Amino acid sequence: MPLSTRIMTLKAKKPDKLPVYEPNIPEPTSRAELLKYWIILTLDERTANNVLWLSEGGSKVSRMTTEVCPCLNRPERFEHYPQLMCKESIWASRCYWEVSCSGWVFIGVAYEGAGRKISDGQCGLGENEESWALGWDGSCYDAWHDGISIRVSDMPHCSTIGVYVDQPAGLISFYTVETEESSKKKDVKLIHRFKNPIKEGIVPGFWMGSNSSCLILKKEE
Q1: All domains in the chain, ordered by first residue
Q2: Which residues form the B30.2/SPRY domain (predicted)?
Q3: Which residues are paired to 38 by β-bridges?
Q4: What is the pLDDT of residues 83-99, one digit of tens each?
Q5: What is the pTM of this model?
Q6: Structure confidence by residue, pLDDT tens digits, 163-221
């Protein structure tokens, strides 16, 4: 497949302006509150390992084939791990986004300067002190940071995951997003929350297993 077809370019909608950061306010507890901090994300094809393929205007990543993309060896590209990052960096703000995944996908964030080459050592999301991630291992959720895994065994699998980051407060929270039977509205349930100092800008990213895909969802109007 030609390099020019790796990512389709579409006219992007002007992003919503995030609220001005106010310290010492309660953490959101509902999806309605989280939506106030919605951020529009775009996958960065320059960071994508060569087994990953982008589509839908840079909002979907897939690993459904063993075919390798003939891409340039850029400094920001993951050399060994089947991962990629988004273009947007989070700093001095609160942000929230949702993704829909199938297969083996770890959703996370990493420092802008986190390693991406074999010479950098462990570069998988959650394998080092510069990244945090959550994924479904087939029987339960695993939350990873600095090479340490926390198993979350009391939460059923959900295909839609929400991620909330409060960078100044050092909070990274992962939620299931499902429609409540009683209200017929979507709401969230907390899977896991990390609380660590976040000392520089962090970027959303994805670690993709074989026969897997992940779509960054649009905000519902």
Answers
A1: 40-216 (2.60.120.920)
A2: 21-221
A3: 96
A4: 999 999 999 999 999 99
A5: 0.89
A6: 999 999 999 999 999 988 888 899 999 999 999 999 999 999 999 999 999 999 999 85
